Amino acid sequence: MRNSRFLLPPVLLWLSLFLVIPMLIVVGISFLSRDTLGRVVFEFNLEGYRTFFDPLYLGIYWDTLVLSLLTTVICLLVSYPLAYYIANASPRVQTWGLVLITIPFWINFLIRTYAWVLLLRTQGVVNSALLWLGWIDEPIQMLYTYGAVLMGMVYNFIPFMVLPIYVALEQMDKRLLDAASDLGASRWKAFLHVTLPQSKSGIMTGAVLVYVSTSGMFVVTDILGGAKSTMISNIIQTQFLGARNWPFGAALSVIFVVTSLILILLFNRAMQARHQRVGEGRA
Amino acid sequence: MIELVQIEKHFQGQAVVHPLSLSIKEGEFLTLLGPSGCGKTTILRMIAGFEQPTDGQVWLAGQNVTDVPASKRDLNLVFQHYALFPHMTVEDNIAFGLKMKKMPRAQIKERVDEAAQMTQLSALRDRFPHQLSGGQQQRVAIARAIANKPKVLLLDEPLGALDLQLRKNLQSELKHLQRTLGITFVYVTHDQEEAMMMSDRIVIMNNGKVEQIGTPREIYARPQTLFAATFVGENNIFSSPEGLIAVRPEKMVAQREPGAKKTGVIEDIQYLGSVHKLLVQLDGEPMKVTVALDISDERPWQIGEAVGVNWNDKDEVMIEP
């Protein structure tokens, strides 16, 4: 890996230009004040952080955490069997499975999400079909519900979970399963003691990707949740664009980033507790 | 201990193992020897239960286990590339089979201690496989298998990935281990020297067929087929009106006096320390023969020199083509 040395300066430059400096600006603004016109003025102020502890915002923050965790768990439950199936299928099925999973990425995110509106609204495809079948007498309110938001999130982020798990499962040495079976493990036990631990890196990557993407998402809540469900990102967006309260928006962003990092760290710690020295597991 | 009754294996219509019957005795060290692709690993995998024979039966300790899955057979396999669990320590690897059997914790510890000691791994129990050398990984693979005290241990080219010196050491260790444990070993290798050194009996295989079964001594001194005669050790093959004849190089003498069975010209001289060989191009025949000279034979030979090649009739072995 001698090449990596030459890649270091551009990577550092990239990171500082597009990640570190913007982050520092946000952190800086979060400690400043604003004037009546919504302009940021250089005056130290903790008002943004104080406002966060208003029960209203705490509640929204809590809802965001719950929705993100729920999305992550559902994504995992749906994606693991799917990734497992694809990883163990014939090469042809593998190729097709991966293509089908990535196809939604070729379509613009907004269009994909608006498509759900067409499906879920009162005169939408699903309600019409159910009415036609005679299973329901009047349209069900599906759009603008918590369920619609949750489904939109799960739908959008399933590939983020499937792909890393697929990679981990696909790279696993299948002879390990022979070895487990030789040592008396049933198929279920072999899965539990060999396959699952071997795919842990994929689960961790997928979970972090889905969690971070969900908790930072405001488009899905806007489109599928209507005005009823709000996530912390919706508030941040409003503070910057609508309410023009940049310091408060910045404070919320900082709190959001810090808590997310802490959660991810705790999660990694928990997953690695037993095998701290394994590293990648495939040396 | 193991009875293979007319087992055969076809893959996509191709016979990989032709019908084969074999009886392996309790406590025996039996080696399946042959070049890669000869079907020896397939036989081992059929005994282990990873492959289902297309036809025939596998009996283990008086029981027909043909339809018993690998996880329920009372034998263990040492895999060619070890197949150690990378996310487990040496200790957890060794204990895996015992945990699967739901053995009490105290007993597991005892067994693991014993297996680790026997394979000299006691100091490395907390390491992970990627922190071990090839030879140490090999030991873990063996410890993981013998901790289960199986009736039979199957070994699939267990030393194939190691360098020569380490192989030599581990060969003696394995042989010693087998004597100490007194369990049946079925060993697969393509290395004829390894097979000769370790085995009680050798099964020589080629193209899915058994060429010969016998003790190392029988196989070396009395090869039955052309393949057996040339795969194990060096041999000179002559055709005679009765068929093919094999004569070992060390049974041949080189002489300058007339009256030799064959004459030829020395094409090359190889000095290998313990042996000294002449490569002789025979007159009027396309073939070359190798003569291994007695180490006490100090006569100087030269490349290009005419030489007579002789041997005793009793050292001729009739072989099948």
TrEMBL record, chain A:
Origin superkingdom: Bacteria
InterPro entries hit by this protein: MetI-like, MetI-like_sf
Listed GO biological process terms: transmembrane transport
A GO CC annotation given for this chain: plasma membrane
Keywords for the protein's UniProt record, in alphabetical order: Cell membrane, Membrane, Transmembrane, Transmembrane helix, Transport
SUPFAM superfamilies referenced in this protein's UniProt entry, alphabetically: MetI-like
Main location: membrane
Pfam families (UniProt xref): BPD_transp_1
Regions crossing the membrane: 12-32, 60-87, 93-111, 148-169, 208-226, 246-267
Occurrences of domain ABC transmembrane type-1 (ranges): 61-267
Compartments where located: Cell membrane
Membrane topology (UniProt): Multi-pass membrane protein
Keyword Transmembrane: yes
Family recorded in the similarity comment: Belongs to the binding-protein-dependent transport system permease family. CysTW subfamily.
Protein name per the record: ABC transporter permease
Source organism per UniProt: Paenibacillus campinasensis
Taxon lineage: Bacteria, Bacillati, Bacillota, Bacilli, Bacillales
From TrEMBL, chain B:
A Pfam family this chain is assigned to: TOBE_2
EC number: 7.6.2.11
InterPro entries, sorted: AAA+_ATPase, ABC_SmlMolc_Importer, ABC_transporter-like_ATP-bd, ABC_transporter-like_CS, Mo/tungstate-bd_C_term_dom, P-loop_NTPase, PotA-like, PotA_ATP-bd
Catalytic activity: ATP + H2O + polyamine-[polyamine-binding protein]Side 1 = ADP + phosphate + polyamineSide 2 + [polyamine-binding protein]Side 1
The keyword Transport is annotated on this UniProt entry: yes
Keywords: ATP-binding, Cell membrane, Membrane, Nucleotide-binding, Translocase, Transport
Domain ABC transporter: residue ranges: 2-232
GO CC annotation terms, alphabetical: ATP-binding cassette (ABC) transporter complex
Molecular-function annotations in GO: ABC-type putrescine transporter activity; ATP binding; ATP hydrolysis activity
Family indicated by similarity: Belongs to the ABC transporter superfamily. Spermidine/putrescine importer (TC 3.A.1.11.1) family.
Binding partners and assembly: The complex is composed of two ATP-binding proteins (PotA), two transmembrane proteins (PotB and PotC) and a solute-binding protein (PotD).
Function (record text): Part of the ABC transporter complex PotABCD involved in spermidine/putrescine import. Responsible for energy coupling to the transport system.
Listed name of the protein: Spermidine/putrescine import ATP-binding protein PotA
Organism: Paenibacillus campinasensis
Originating gene: potA
